[in-house]
Amino acid sequence: MHFDHAGIATDDAQALAELYGDLFGLEVAHEEEFDGLRVVFLECGDGYFELLEPLEEGTISRYLEDNGSGIHHLALATDDIEGALETVRDHEVALIDEEPRPGAWGHSVAFLHPKDTGGILIELVEH
C-alpha cells in the first residue's frame, strides 16, 4: 500500500483549488460531481489533495457543520482491496464498508472506522 490522497472537506472546492494552485503550484488532475459532491483532485507529488464540496445534504455537509473545513480522511491505495479488507477484519478493526463500493474517479473504495484507527477516517482505494 501507499499514500493516495488526503480528503479535504470544503464549502468551495473551486476557491480552495485556486488557493492551493497559487500557494503550492498544485494543478487539477481530475474533477467530477459524484454522490452529491463536487470532487476536485489536485496533483501533489505522489498523491493528491481531494477537495470535497457538498452539493446536497450528506456526510460531508454534516462534517462541515460539525467541524468546519479541514481534513476529512486519509486514503491508502491498494492493488487488492478485497485482500486489504480481509487483513482489516483479521485485526478486528471496525469497517464502515464491509464490501468495496464505487468511489470518485471510478475507483473502488472502503472506509475503516476511526474508533479503531487512532481517530482517523481511513479510506482504502483500489485504482
Automatic annotation (TrEMBL):
Residue ranges constituting the VOC domain according to the UniProt record: 2-127
CDD domains for this protein: MMCE (cd07249)
Record family assignment: Belongs to the methylmalonyl-CoA epimerase family.
Superkingdom of origin organism: Archaea
Record keywords: Isomerase, Metal-binding
Record GO biological process: L-methylmalonyl-CoA metabolic process
EC number annotated for this UniProt entry: 5.1.99.1
SUPFAM superfamilies recorded: Glyoxalase/Bleomycin resistance protein/Dihydroxybiphenyl dioxygenase
PROSITE patterns, per database record: VOC
GO function terms (MF aspect): metal ion binding; methylmalonyl-CoA epimerase activity
Protein name: Methylmalonyl-CoA epimerase
